[in-house]
Amino acid sequence: MSAQPLVLANNKTPANVATDFLCVIKDIEACIENSNSQAAAIENRGLFKSAFSSSRKDLVDISRSQNKINEMMLGLIQEVITLNAMSYSFLAAVIGELEDRCRNGWKDSDGQLQELSDTGRQFADRANDIFVKILDGSKSTQNKIEVNQQKIAELRDKLQLKAQMVLKHNAEIDSIKNTLSNKAVLMQKSQQDISSIQSLLEVKAERLSLLDQALEEKKQTLEQHDQAIHALIEELQENNRLDMAREQVVQDMQVQMAALSQRANHHKIFMSGLAIGCAALATITTLDLLNLL
Question: What is the 3-state secondary structure (H, E, C) of 245-264?
Fold first, then answer.
């Protein structure tokens, strides 16, 4: 009996699956005993038979038997792994049924009692050890799964809360996007306004440059005017000094003229008195002459 899918058949009980496993183990038992018989026959050959026998053929036959055993064993392990993935409790029940049938035998499909030989029991024990290790690993995995399920439930709650927050944030982000879109339009308009202002500033800068040139020319002209004014001030100061000197001369002349005028007045008064005296003398003289006549 070659390895074939046993677990995937519908309506299989743990006892049915254990019986199927034992049938495969029974086939493996036959292969092991056949391989052992071949090895014993090779060892018991005489020198003459060994000389004419083919050692290559012997090795091929033994290798084929071993490959068949390995193939069926791998098939059993794959079935156990499949059971482990499907249900931990079902696999535990299958292993329990398998141990019981290995000890007490089982009935095949024809109703005949089947038992394993010592070779079959040894192989079944090794296979059962492998199955139990897989089951123990499954138990550990199951415990981890239960813990992980609890963590997953907690994580799901957190994710739901985060999902609500994300939805809220998405709404806020949409609002921000709309605001940013409006701001982008305003910024574009502002950019256009800035471009217009820059153009105006460039024109004004050019005008200011021309004004700077004009101011520089004015500055030079004013400097020239300042120099001329400074020269005029110096000239006026000199003229003022001369005017003051002239005024002093005039004042001196006025003083002298006043003195001369005063002298002239005194002379005029003297002359008036002298004229009066002369007139009086003439009058007296005339009277004296009249008296004499």
Answer: HHHHHHHHHHHHHHHHHHHH
Number of H helices, E strands in the chain: 5, 2
pLDDT in tens, 71-86: 887 888 887 777 767 7
- Determine contact, residues 143/92, Cβ cutoff 8 Å: no
Give domain status of residue 251, yes or no.
Answer: no
DSSP type of residue 87: -
Q: 85-112: per-residue pLDDT in tens?
A: 777 778 788 888 888 888 888 887 787 8
Print burial letters for 64-93: b (CB count within 10 Å at least 16), e (below 16). ebeebbeebbebbeebbeebbeeebebbbb
Classify residue 57: in a domain, yes or no: yes
| 104 in any annotated domain | yes
Query: 106 - beta bridge partners?
Result: 114
User: What is the separation of C-alpha 22 from the centre of its chain, rounded to a whole number of angstroms?
Assistant: 63
CA angle, 26 as apex, 24 and 28 as ends, to 5°?
A: 70
Residue 46 lies in a domain: yes
**Model confidence, pTM:** 0.38
Question: Residue ranges of the alpha helices (H) in 44-106?
Answer: 47-52, 55-86, 88-104
Contact 149, 141 (CB under 8 A): no
Locate 262 and state its tokens: 């005063």
Q: Which domain holds residue 22?
A: 14-116
**What is the domain count for the chain?**
1
Residues with Cβ within 8 Å of 92's Cβ and at least 6 positions away in sequence, in order, are 135
